[in-house]
Amino acid sequence: MANTSHGIGGLTFDPKKRTRPPELNVLAALVLIIVAFEVLGRLFIGDSFLFNTRDNVDTLFNEQRLQIIILQVAIVGIIALGVTQVIITGGIDLSSGSIVGVTAMVTMSFAQVATVNGNPNPKAIFGPEWMDLPVIVPLVVGLACGLFAGLVNGLLIAYTKIPPFIATLGMMVAARGAAKWWSKGNPISFPTESYATIGKGMTPVVIFIVLAVLFHLIMTQTKYGKHCYAIGSNEPAARMSGINVDGHKVLVYTIAGALAALAAVVLSSKNLTAQAGMGVMYELDAIAMAVIGGVSLQGGRGSIIGTCLGALIFGVIISGFTFLKLDAYYQEMVKGVIIVGAVVLDQWRQTKRGRG
Amino acid sequence: MTDLILETRGLTKHYGGVHALTGADFSLTRGEHVAIMGDNGAGKSTFVRQITGVEKPTGGQIIFDGVEHTFQSPIEAREAGIETVFQTLALADDLDVPSNLFLGREKIRFNLGPFSILDKRAMKEAAMAALLKTGVKIPNIMNTIRNMSGGQRQCVAIARTAAFKSKLVIMDEPTAALGVQETAQVENIIRTLKEAGEPLILISHNMRQVFDLVDRIVVFRRGRIVANLRKEDTSGEDVVAYITGAKTGTEYQGAA
Ligand SMILES: Nc1ncnc2c1ncn2[C@@H]1O[C@H](COP(=O)(O)OP(=O)(O)OP(=O)(O)O)[C@@H](O)[C@H]1O
Ligand SMILES: [Mg+2]
User: What's the predicted TM-score (pTM) here?
Assistant: First the structure.
């Protein structure tokens, strides 16, 4: 019996009665929300949310809607993967949306073509010698942008002991400023063919899934992941146990910055343009995805799987409101309610745990 | 090589105006087990925090294993060979038992720097073995520490020191939250250390336990060492008299 050997000193426990992982609750919530939209749809607008109701296409599910949902959340989802790690260590990152903005601008400048329809690129940032570059150049530049911003966040938080909220708030404002300054507010467009393929079709989803699997493994199987949880759970204890807490924090925020930069690359490639306002509020969407997925703002608890489910819930709710033909304004308000609601739920879980 | 494993000279710690520890001259020979006793707030834990690198002393010297050390962190003290069970236990509530036992020195399957792959199975098996020695009962060691009783948590912290090789073990009130059986088990661990010739500093309020286990008793009072008593030359009443201040050791007369 492999499972009874978890116990020690003669006490046994029934593995079947093991407390169920919190991700199952999130999954249940996801299913419940989908069912709710299905019912509301049939009642009020006579259409199905989930299933295909058009006779001309021969599929069971409404694949188009599902694709849109997943595509919608994939890009912010990439950011949420980094934000999850930050929150698990007991921190917060408010700068990801602005890092998306500035990275998109800088990256796109290195991804432009020299000629559009036989004319010189009207949105050109650099001279022709900096155009038609191989795709690796904007990729490396973009990643470097995010790594640098994340590194600054991490160094500020780890070594000046500024609270993460303040440090990343500063980065949020500064990076947005840099995004606007970069091209004096002008959009940057006309990327090379190869750059444009990064965000084409369902590629963003593939990128998101690959990264999610990678970070799931990192968080569950490596020292890095273990130390994230240890620091978020009890920072003084982590220090006393010999974990290099400061170095770890620098690493975590740097990774979060790099992931935000990747999201920027995918987003600008998908939109074929970059604007200084790109990624506004993405940081809050990403935090919401994590918190909905069961990542505790107190630190120490949560998982990549949870965040992925949280991202899906987020996407389903947004798409559900469009489906119910509710105004875009409602969507924003509901987003606000979801974010606050998820935090309230988290605190409620804390107090319940405290009493139990 | 001297026969002293640890020596402090004039070790002092002030927290602002609080003189938590003043001029502590303490020594421990190899293989010796010493108890530190004293009322609450006498400075016992403060003393431990100075010699384990958790805090920097205001003054004084620490000579460990023949070398003067100024430990910058608990890691340095641990790498030098001092294993400590802190009174605050220093556990991560959201991690399971093996993760806590190996916190900061995980067993690794592939070395990839910070992203090294953990050897979870080896850690689990080693944790089991270490815990068995404490005699603690834990239904599921893969549960998070948060849900465990005070005694179970304490045993996890003790098992953490027992699982690693060291030159000196320090336990700050290791049996404070333990039941009768678990206390007996922990006392057995201490006896095993004695047989193995490993020196120990035990902080305890339990007179019976102290007289059962150690060779020597050092009494702290108001941040000063006020007595240094060989077990054979003293008695329970005697020790109590030193703790309460009714008596002061001859060589410490001037101090207290
Ligand atoms: N960080 C600190 N700042 C200020 N004063 C402190 C600090 N740590 C300890 N003290 C004070 O130092 C004195 C000694 O505390 P210490 O924890 O060493 O006592 P102790 O002998 O271990 O007591 P107990 O038996 O209750 O564990 C106490 O008066 C305490 O209030
Ligand atoms: Mg104490």
Answer: 0.89
B125 near A CB under 8 A: no
Domains belonging to chain B, first-starting first, are 1-81+168-256 (3.40.50.300), 92-164 (no CATH)
Pocket test for ligand 1, best of B45, B47, B56, B218 (most atoms within 8 A of CB): B45
Among B11, B12, B13, B15, say which to mutate for ligand 1: greatest number of ligand atoms within 8 Å of CB.
B15
Q: What is the pLDDT of residues B241-255, one digit of tens each?
A: 999 988 876 667 654
In a domain, A130, yes or no: yes
Q: Domain holding A267: CATH number?
A: 1.10.3470
Shortest Cα distance from A226 to chain B (angstroms)?
A: 8
pLDDT(A4) > 50: no
Q: Is A242 left (phi over 0), alpha (psi -120 to 50) or beta?
A: left
Token couple for A97: 């949306």
Q: How many CB atoms lie within 10 A of CB B160?
A: 26
Minimum distance, in Å, between the CA of residue B162 and any CA atom of chain A: 15
The number of folded domains in chain A is: 1
| Closest approach atom of ligand 1 to CA B87 | 27
Cα–Cα dist A311/A26, whole Å: 11
Which amino acid, B149? S
Domain assignment present for residue A55? The answer is no
pLDDT digits over A213-255, tens only?
A: 999 999 999 999 999 999 999 999 998 888 999 999 999 999 9
Taking residues B69-87, report their average pLDDT.
91
Please name the residue whose Cα sits nearest to atom 10 of ligand 1. Answer: B20
Show the domain range for A129.
20-46+60-348
A353, part of any domain: no
3-state secondary structure B86-132: CCCCCCCCCCEHHHHHCCCCCCEEECECECCEECHHHHHHHHHHHHH
Give A99-157 pLDDT, tens digit per residue: 999 999 999 999 999 888 888 888 888 888 888 899 999 999 999 999 999 999 999 99
